Amino acid sequence: MKEFVLITGQSGAGKSQAAGILEDMGFFCVDNLPTELLDGFTELCQAAEGKYDRVALVSDIRGRRDIGALAEHIRKLKESVSLRVLFLEATDAVILNRYKETRHLHPLDPTGNDLPGAIRREKAALAPLRALADETVDTSELNWSSLKLRLGRIFLPETKDSLYLHVCSFGYKNGLPAGADLVMDVRFLPNPFYVPELKPLTGLDPAVRDYVCAFPATAEFLEKMKDMLAFLLPRYLAEGKSSLLLAVGCTGGKHRSVVMAERLTVILRELGYTADCVHRELR
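User: That's the sequence. What structure does it adopt?
Assistant: Structure tokens below.
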């Protein structure tokens, strides 16, 4: 049976990256295919024996303001072909920052004068497509490798029975990571920030790691966390949970939380799970 995936979602949420990742997985990818060509294209793919068995199409707000009509078209298409809708999104702040970094223009802000308003308008306009999504992925805290693991969890058959784990260190002064499932506060540990020679370093530096790990409370905390995760994760999996975001926080997000997030990622892998780690405040 032919497999079709429609990649859609917010501008700046990573649709092009997702298409590239699916292409690496063996999908034939087409970006920004006009709505009126969807039917003919899927019929062509179905008629091609042995070709185009897995197809990913990127379709979004570019060039089509009537998202309601596109959503209705997709709804009807789902009745005739095996089609899954992948919707990518991110927080307004993350989208805003990505556009500022790339200096690209948002499709709803061609003059570049009202990016926050364009982000809000697009989110509202995309609501009918989001309602059709089979998979919704928030990319706010995902880098490329994290997104690849997440999409592999969804689209690679051999990973269907696994639980994908994403560990993210953060600073409480900047707020919680979006979509966090479990939040671990490690501010009870002594803070390297107040050690002059450690203050300019990060938790990725051996000196900071050794300092944080030298305290008995660190080892005890990690051992208790290992026991708790060994208890929780199989039960999340049994309930159908496919991914989990573990957020590890300290005050600034540069020392203690980084060390502990790295250590917890190792523990998760030792428990047999697929896990990756990113550090929000070190980007």
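The longest strand covers residues 164-171.
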